[in-house]
């Protein structure tokens, strides 16, 4: 029986050949990109799409919009059941970005980021960082990539009132923008420690096991080295986060083999396969890879 689709999320799987039965109920939801193979002359399918688990005939429903940025829900109990794929499009992403809202401080810091050409985490990703900082009751956070202070404001707002953010950036001028943003947000000067320099020169000087959260938004090519340093810096139960792992869609596109995308793919794989980490890949901003240190 031919393959009916390729599901691409850093690797490829297929739907098609043999029947299987399960004894557990599994409910899996993830944002993915789907690639389909079509017989010669057949037009690409357009969503929504409904397909089946192995052993059942796929059913495709043609709609009016391209079937991209999809949610895949799979439920198996006893015999295979249908797997429904429904759209997760720009409207949902826009809702996530506006759900919490950004005040004048964040709006200004984000404008500074755009003006200077410095990438900044999106509002939904920032809200996730704030939530994670609060969830671990963070007193000490290390940040790779200060930027203009967008992510730092979110992190500081999630931390304990006596918490300290240690933030590293190669460019002191960026840290000055962030310093202004933190001051405008009402944080005392002692709430942030600014260290200029290359992250891989600075991180080894930080104390082992003393950090509740490490946020990495630096050079993607150095991400695996950031991971190694983060594991050393974090206490058990601490969280490491990497921003921008979707690489503007390149992560899920096998044809992209540039060094930066390859490095991020290796990072995603290593985090998933590490027995020291409990990971999740969150579809916020440009992809937020998070993991708890066991």
Automatic annotation (TrEMBL):
<dbReference type="InterPro" id="IPR029063">
    <property type="entry name" value="SAM-dependent_MTases_sf"/>
</dbReference>
<dbReference type="InterPro" id="IPR002935">
    <property type="entry name" value="SAM_O-MeTrfase"/>
</dbReference>
<protein>
    <submittedName>
        <fullName>Putative O-methyltransferase YrrM</fullName>
    </submittedName>
</protein>
<dbReference type="Pfam" id="PF01596">
    <property type="entry name" value="Methyltransf_3"/>
</dbReference>
<keyword id="KW-0808">Transferase</keyword>
<dbReference type="GO" id="GO:0008757">
    <property type="term" value="F:S-adenosylmethionine-dependent methyltransferase activity"/>
</dbReference>
<dbReference type="GO" id="GO:0032259">
    <property type="term" value="P:methylation"/>
</dbReference>
<keyword id="KW-0949">S-adenosyl-L-methionine</keyword>
<feature type="compositionally biased region" description="Polar residues">
    <location>
        <begin position="11"/>
        <end position="21"/>
    </location>
</feature>
<dbReference type="InterPro" id="IPR050362">
    <property type="entry name" value="Cation-dep_OMT"/>
</dbReference>
<keyword id="KW-0489">Methyltransferase</keyword>
<dbReference type="GO" id="GO:0008171">
    <property type="term" value="F:O-methyltransferase activity"/>
</dbReference>
<feature type="region of interest" description="Disordered">
    <location>
        <begin position="1"/>
        <end position="23"/>
    </location>
</feature>
